[in-house]
């Protein structure tokens, strides 16, 4: 090789050597040295559950460059409690020694580890007995560094005030369910509804419980609230006992309750209308307690008829109308106005020379309906109306009529009225008015006829 070329290459290589050695690794310059501290320090309530023995954890963090091991120890700090009592004018005493033990009083956090914990085992049985002394107790604790690791002084003390709770299970939303489950013929024959159950702690073992139907709870509720809810029939629901457990650490769960709609509403022949309650109680639990206020739920099942559509219905017969008198034809107060869903329009009876009562209307509902109640709506003008008493009939052939209920209005002031009728099945409905509040001749009564108006006739049932 040419000597000149070798010389040039060597000069090139050696010219970079100073540059290589002049570069320093500055990556660690802005990272602080390791420090340790309690995640939660200062005065704090220690939430304990009455398990007999409850493990409470004090988490210690180590932050920084990660080049140093932390060796720590735990001590009881009497001076900390004294200072707190002086500053707050309180009278806390140190928790008696039989109420706790330290599972570990020393802790080593390795160089590359970021945290670890001290564990305190509280004797909840002994702590519960302290409540009879009517004194306040606290456990003052300080962590100290054994090696030269930096300990943040402001985060090295903790004053634990034990707060003891009974572990329990309950319904998440006890009492009467806020929104009823409304059944209709469009629902599946049976379907599941979720009922949530929960604990106020994380179970340490599998938690089994039992749920039962409590009829007395429904009786108590009806008596206390002057209600008349019905007990949901046995064949209209199903409970799934194989779901009645919580796994370790599981605090809540949705339980399925199956509602068997077909045994309440079953087209074409079964309609058990009513407001039902399924009263459920948590009967027992494998560990701990049942919350008294959360032990029962009243599941509200509404099996109600609905207002039927009258869009295609027709009034095919009637016996009195104001439009029978020529001068009132333009008022258009015809019987069809009872079905037009407009309360500003209305039917009026023959006016100047009223016909003798009763007055009646025959309505063709175009198909057989199951009817449970009928409503009347008078015009908004307070002096209009004047219907007082009558009855309803139903038929499938316009020949054989069955009376399904009487109706009566106590005063002419109220505008809306709804009347329960015997649940009945038929295509044709007859509405009869037998009495009024005032007549064309009050001395004669119904045979003299009456002036009256009516805006709407509503029907509730099932198509």
Automatic annotation (TrEMBL):
Where in the numbering of this chain does the BT-3987-like N-terminal domain appear?
A: 34-148, 173-287
The record, for PROSITE patterns, names: PROKAR_LIPOPROTEIN (PS51257)
Membrane-spanning intervals of the chain? none
Q: Which InterPro entries match?
A: BT_3987-like_N (IPR013728), FA58C (IPR000421), Galactose-bd-like_sf (IPR008979)
Q: Which residues form the F5/8 type C domain?
A: 334-438
Locate the coiled-coil region(s) and give their ranges: none
Protein name per UniProt: F5/8 type C domain-containing protein
Which species does the entry assign this protein to?
A: Sunxiuqinia elliptica
């Amino acid at each position: 090789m040419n000597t000149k070329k070798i010389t040039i290459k060597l000069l090139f290589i050696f010219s970079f050597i100073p540059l290589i050695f002049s570069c320093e690794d500055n990556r660690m310059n802005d990272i602080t040295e390791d420090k340790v501290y309690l995640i939660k320090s200062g005065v704090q309530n220690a939430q304990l559950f009455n398990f007999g023995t409850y493990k409470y954890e004090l988490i210690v963090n180590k932050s920084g460059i990660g080049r140093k091991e932390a060796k720590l120890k735990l001590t009881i700090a009497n001076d900390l409690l004294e200072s707190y009592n002086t500053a707050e004018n309180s009278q806390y005493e140190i928790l008696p020694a039989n109420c706790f033990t330290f599972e570990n009083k020393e802790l080593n956090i390795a160089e590359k580890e970021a945290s670890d914990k001290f564990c305190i085992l509280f004797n909840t049985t002994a702590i519960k007995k302290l409540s009879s002394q009517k004194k306040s107790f606290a456990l003052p604790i300080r962590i100290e560094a054994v090696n030269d690791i930096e300990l943040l002084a402001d985060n090295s003390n903790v004053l634990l005030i034990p707060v003891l709770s009974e572990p329990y299970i309950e319904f998440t939303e006890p009492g009467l369910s806020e929104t009823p489950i409304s059944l209709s013929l469009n629902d599946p024959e049976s379907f599941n509804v979720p009922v949530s159950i929960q604990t106020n702690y994380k179970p340490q073992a599998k938690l089994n419980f039992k749920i039962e139907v409590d009829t007395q709870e429904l009786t108590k509720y009806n008596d206390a609230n002057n209600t008349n809810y019905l007990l949901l029939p046995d064949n209209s629901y199903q409970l799934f006992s194989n779901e009645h457990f919580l796994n370790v650490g599981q605090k809540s769960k949705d339980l399925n309750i199956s509602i068997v709609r077909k045994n309440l509403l079953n087209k074409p022949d079964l309609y058990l209308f009513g407001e039902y309650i399924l009263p459920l109680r948590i009967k027992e639990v494998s560990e701990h307690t049942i919350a008294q206020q959360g032990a029962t739920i009243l599941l509200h099942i509404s099996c109600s008829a609905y207002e039927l559509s009258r869009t295609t219905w027709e009034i095919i017969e009637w016996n009195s109308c104001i439009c029978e008198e020529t001068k009132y034809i333009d008022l258009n107060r015809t019987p069809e106005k009872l079905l037009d869903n407009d309360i500003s329009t209305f039917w009026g009876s023959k006016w100047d020379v009223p016909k003798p009562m009763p007055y009646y209307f025959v309505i063709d509902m175009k198909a057989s309906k199951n009817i449970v109640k009928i409503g009347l709506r008078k015009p908004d003008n307070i002096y209009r109306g004047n219907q007082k008493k009558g009855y309803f009939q139903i038929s499938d052939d316009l020949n054989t009529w069955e009376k399904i209920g009487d109706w009566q209005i106590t005063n002419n002031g109220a505008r809306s009225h709804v009347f329960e009728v015997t649940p009945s099945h038929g295509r044709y409905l007859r509405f009869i008015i037998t009495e009024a509040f005032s007549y064309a001749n009050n001395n004669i009564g119904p045979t003299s006829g009456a002036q009256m108006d009516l805006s709407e006739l509503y029907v509730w049932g099932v198509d």
